Amino acid sequence: MDKKTMIVSAFIVAILAIGASLLVMERETEPATRISELDEEEITNEMTIYWFKSEMCPYCHDQEPYLDEWEKLDAVEVKKHEISEGENQELLQKMLKGYGAPSGGVPATFIGGDYWIGFGESIRRDMEEKLVNCLTAEVSCPGPMERIE
């Protein structure tokens, strides 16, 4: 290998090494997007999640472990409402109306100013992102009950 090729090769390797280290540094400074990545020191707000479910609902059973995991944070409270109980059905209807949502089924989840009907991977990601944003925001997100009071 001649001297010119060696210099060009060394330069390319140096550029790649610098680029890789910048990517690692950038990744370390990105805000958490998942509850599992969140440090307690990053949490500046408390959040109450309202969740409406049915024992007969398979999607509710799929969602519940995530809610239980999120509630392990001191700043998160999950209020679980079984819709077979009349007063919970009334509360769900009030909340749907307060959010301008169409009548819906379960699971129905209310976090800050947003709501979700149903459950799946994309909904879980959206809810988790919303929760992380509400917990770490400079200004707290509105609580779901603020929509109906």
Description of the structure:
The protein has 149 residues and is of the alpha+beta class. It has two domains: 1-30; 36-147, 3-Layer(aba) Sandwich (Glutaredoxin). 46% of the residues lie in helices and 15% in strands. The protein contains four helices and four strands; from the N terminus they run H-E-H-E-H-E-E-H. The chain has a four-stranded mixed β-sheet, sandwiched between helices. The longest helix has 27 residues, at 3-29. It starts with a helix and ends in a 13-residue tail after the last helix.
Number of helices: 4
How far apart lie the N and C ends? 77 Å
| Beta-strand proportion | 5-15%
Number of domains: 2
Q: What's the CATH H-level homologous superfamily of the largest domain?
A: Glutaredoxin
Largest sheet, strands/sense/barrel: 4 strands, mixed
Order of helices and strands: HEHEHEEH
Rg calc = 22 Å
Oligomeric state: single chain
Helicity range: 40-55%
Structure at a glance:
The chain is 46% helix and 15% strand. The chain is α+β, with helices and mostly antiparallel strands.
